[in-house]
Amino acid sequence: MTPLDRPRRPWDRAPVAEREYFEMLGLGIVSVLPARAEGASRNGWSPPSGGAWVHVGEDGTVHAFTGKAEVGQGTRTALARVVSAALDVPAAQVDLRMGDTDLCPWDMGTFGSRSMPDAVPALYAAALGAGEVLRELAARRTGGRPEGFELHDGSVRPTGSTSGTPFAELVRGESIVREASPVGPQALGPPTHRAGRPSPDPLADDLVTGHRQFVSDVSRPGMLHGAVLWPPVRGATLLEADSASAERLPGVAIVRDGAFVGAVAGSPFAARAAVASVRARWDRPAYPAEPEIEAYLGAHPLSGDHWDSDEDREGDVETALGTAAHRVELRYRTSYIAHVPLEPRCAIAEWTGHRLTVWVGTQTPFRARSQVAEALECSEDDVRIIVPPTGAGFGGKHGGEIATAAARLARASGHPVRLAFSREEEFLHGYLRPMSIVEIRAGIDAAGRVTAWSFHNLNGGAAAASTPYSVPNRHIWNTLADSPLPQGPYRSLAANANNFARECAMDELGSRAGLDPLDFRRRHLDDPRLRTVLDRAADRAGWADRARGAGRGYGLALGREKGGRIATVAEVSVDRQRRVRVDRLVSAFEAGRIVHPENLRSQVEGAHVMALGGALFEAIRFHQGVVQNPRLSQYRVPRFSDVPEIEIELVDAPEVAPAGAGETPMIAVAPAIANAISDVTGVRLRTLPLVPTGRMAK
Amino acid sequence: MSHHGRATSKLIDSDPYCGTASSSPMSEPTISVRVNGRAEAISTLPERSLLAALRYDLGLTGTKYGCGEGECGACTVLLDGIATRACQIPVAEAGGREVVTIEGLAGPAGALSPVQRAFAELGAFQCGFCTSGMIVAATALLSRTRAPTRDDIESALNGNLCRCGGYLRIQKAIERAVELRDREGR
Fold this sequence. Notes:
The complex is a heterodimer of chains A (698) and B (186).
Chain A: H1 21-25, E1 28-33, E2 52-57, E3 62-66, H2 75-87, E4 94-98, H3 115-142, E5 149-152, E6 155-158, E7 165-166, H4 167-171, E8 175-179, H5 191-194, H6 204-208, E9 224-228, E10 237-242, H7 244-247, E11 252-257, E12 260-265, H8 268-276, E13 279-283, H9 293-299, E14 312-314, H10 317-322, E15 326-334, E16 346-352, E17 355-360, H11 365-376, E18 383-386, H12 401-413, E19 417-420, H13 423-429, E20 436-444, E21 450-458, E22 473-479, H14 493-512, H15 517-523, H16 528-541, E23 552-561, E24 564-574, E25 580-590, H17 597-616, E26 622-623, E27 626-627, E28 645-651, H18 669-681, E29 687-688
Parallel strand pairs in A: 1-8, 3-4, 9-19, 15-29, 17-18, 21-22, 25-28
Antiparallel strand pairs in A: 1-2, 2-3, 5-6, 6-7, 9-12, 10-13, 11-12, 14-22, 15-20, 16-17, 16-19, 20-21, 23-24, 24-25, 26-27
Chain B: E1 30-35, E2 38-43, H1 50-57, E3 76-79, E4 82-85, E5 98-100, H2 114-122, H3 131-144, H4 150-157, H5 167-184
Parallel strand pairs in B: 1-5
Antiparallel strand pairs in B: 1-2, 3-4, 3-5
């Protein structure tokens, strides 16, 4: 057991004086950036969050701590390099700890493209603070003023000198704790210094040899396997569960706690078999068949102000519609889709006395800690959530449901328990990206200006609903509904649906005005950052000289969300059998100051590939609240052969704080493709996925 | 689609678990398989797939569970040199055969294979959960094709899902692996 693994009070719940920095890590120096006084959320509901701390130890290792979790998006590498750049220390000397609630500062969660905007400045500031202390130590040792020293390759040396003193030597015997000051985006310096020297990911070797331990690879001594009787549909109530025959099975313990029914056994076969033999009766809410879903959602609005309400009302839409030269009334739909992280949910729970540790792939370890503590009626001080390397989340791994269930089974059985979803369970008992129904009424005047814009999203949410185009009379609002299928966050969530609807509608309006899609958009754009990405994408794609006809067409779309700006051009062909093929996607993306270009490019490319699935063929089929295609043989996600040419132009905006990049690059793909299909065929497809069978309907 | 020695009758393996050999009951019948060059005895419980045996009996957790029906490729291993979905192979079918997993690809002194090195160098992964299967499938491709074209790569790996969408990088890594292999004459 390393000192970091010893049972202790969570860092964020310990008073500053009791944080045991040096008991945990040995002597050295510590630099702490305190949590912000208020949360970063637009709606202002988040508690104080963030901060970071950095410890430089007597062996020269730089330990850095942030509450963000690495769930496969690659921020670990980018963030470790931020620390290595701030201290000019080799990346291999940096040990970055993330997503461990005993060791890391409190964090709201890893979602909403917040990892870079939250953690980059925090870690950078904490590391710079450590650097200041190091320079002071060097000055004290050799004389002179701290400003006369510089950090170089893990040492501190008089500025311009070729020899210095290694960190390890400087911090020996020290126990200094210093509070760091926040820094602005400019502090990150010129591009070459932003993410340290390019070097292979120091963690890559264990991955390519199969030795990296993902959540589902974690094994504990004496570990047993669990299974849970999950409700068959959302909102179902357990009326009765007869577990008599399950209890007679050898080597199986049935765990019951109110409506919770689970089993623990030596193998998951046995645990699952035991749960399957429980005869349960459920009271199931009456949910509609798939064709009735829109009417159902419309009839079940969630009333009142909700977290995602975000109304934008300006001018007089109805009057403007009445006097418009052309009017359109359009309805766009996006289907429920699934995240399908390649690693299904998994949690391993272990009690040591009154303390509980859960290894779980969650995007919100601190929220999971609260949920587990509340459900099991124990103190948050006694719950430790550790997020091991996780096989992706995409918004689908929020919260602590599986962690709570594993903890219950572990407590009842007196053993560490592993609880893992099968792929089918992942589809059936996770949650989905909501279906959206967007209704747009809009009008243009004789000069081709949009004068009226009414936009309503039912069930999907508010993200990116506000229009980036200047429209004098507008009403933009949304209504959440009581969805029969469990729904929740998803990579860029409602921005996909809202951007799809708006960008398709803009094309429909532009064509009525007789204007080119690029020209029509430019006329309505004041945002210089959006104009930049739009022009760059159009130039790079050769928009002005595009060769249409012969089954080939082009579509354009843009979007603004979570601090980023994206424009995408799609080149699509439709053959005589009406098969649709996306041949090329060209995008320009700007998300403020670029920290780690390669990681950014990787995120942006990945976002395009993921967006292709939702655009073309991904759709959950359901009946009365139950998913009907809960397997990868029945639910298609993008494969190698689906990937078109993808060209990404990254636009650096050094004066703008770095925004996240995981989500926004997705949101122009579907509308660009729909617009391109219309360009080829003249047919307007207003439902995502556009071509679930790969072909256009006759 | 894939041609990876998938069993004809489809198996649904809902068993994503791992563990240690010591947790395997002693009374189960066993069968002998060579895994990464070593003779191993693994349980032949009827419901057990090769994937479960590798992860559970042998603790070789580099081979991943992603779907249990041979659709995602995360559990790809070499079975007598052929890229095979371990979740689709009942243990009994593996008897007497040669299995190589991701853990068995590096050289004797731990030297990474050209494919492993190329993936690491190019950072051809995001979450990394597909990486084992991708590397094993690419290794099989390189062993049977001297100079794979883009189409060869696409068809050899079309049964391997990367949900993070890293296909372009994976393709580059495989092209790089060909260079590395040729340079080293492996």
